[in-house]
Amino acid sequence: MIAGALLNSFSFFMLSLSQPNQYYQVFLSHGLGAGLAAGLVYTPALAISSHYFKRHRGLSIGIVSSGVGIGAVLHSIMLNYLFRGRSSFANGVRISAALNSGLLLVANLMMRTRLPPNKGRRHIPFAEFARDTPYVFIILGGMVLIFDISFVVFFIQLFGTIAKISYELSFYTLPIMNAASVVGRIIPVLFVHRCGVVNLNIICTTAMAALIYSLAVVKTANGLLAFAIVYGFFEGGVITLTPTLLASFAKDVDEVGARIGVSFTLSGIMGLFVAPIDGALLTTQMHWWRPIVFSGTAVLATTLCYIVAQSILVRRKNTYVV
Fold first, then answer.
1. Is residue 133 located within the same domain as residue 40?
2. Can you give the pTM of this predicted structure?
3. DSSP structure string for 190-258
4. Hey, which of 64, 97, 273, 298 would disulfide with 12, CB 3.0 to 4.6 Å?
5. Number of domains in the chain
6. CA nearest neighbour of 202 among 46, 62, 311
7. What are the tens digits of pLDDT across the range 220-244?
8. pLDDT tens digit sequence for 38-87
9. Could you list the residue range(s) of the whole structural domain that residue 168 is in?
10. Cα(241)–Cα(187) distance, integer angstroms
11. Residue 281, C-beta contacts closer than 8 angstroms, at least 6 positions apart
């Protein structure tokens, strides 16, 4: 956590020093530095909160991850006004970096692990993870799901602009979607022990697939606004339920961070290919139906992976996970 916080601050301040037409500077500071820092901060934060809860682990993860949605709303609006106002790009990024540094300082001062590190375990049992069939299917589902989530995040504003919806509303669709995801990160996990975390994931991913397909017929501002709100809710649910599900496979608290980290690492690698693939499908002629069908089908594949994992867990009579 400390290393991630320091790297985050350093990377953002380095980004503010990047020069026009010097892509490598942005790639090194923001792509590699800030990206690595995000992973170092986000995954341990979820794991630490998981150590304190079992029955209410999903709710604790939901509350922690809701900070991501709140931050996404805050930073997108703040930076938009800074860049369009009197502040330059460099000063806007520095203000953002200062805010992040202050928040990360507070977070590191407040966090404590419940148990000391297990010095008896010298390695992560990856081979054991690989033999856990339902866990593998959950990982595969998460790797495919990234195609759906990233498509909406990267292209929703462009979609609104091309559809000749006002620039202001097109810009605010992403903050609105992130605000809805804050609610979605908390409410679904309240029903984990009544409905089962896998069942809730299936419901959310199925709803996301239907919403992605419906985007092909959205032509109005009201339609885009409704899509952003409803999709953001279900997306938030999946974002919270996924680490909750991964943590439930852990045989002890020492495995929680590893179980989540393995899945997030593989999904992150898959995420490198999302924007280029969607862009290639979209083309300069803006054939929106192509990436829409691709992304919707991808999330249906995620649902199928969860259904397979659920069927295996039912046979094992794992009542908590199912």
1. no
2. 0.84
3. GGHHHH-HHHHHHHHHHHHHHHHHHGGG--SHHHHHHHHHHHHHHHHHHHHHHHHHHHHT-SSGGGHHH
4. 97
5. 2
6. 311
7. 888 999 999 999 999 999 988 888 8
8. 888 888 888 788 778 777 777 888 888 888 888 888 888 888 888 877 67
9. 126-322
10. 11
11. 287, 290, 291, 294
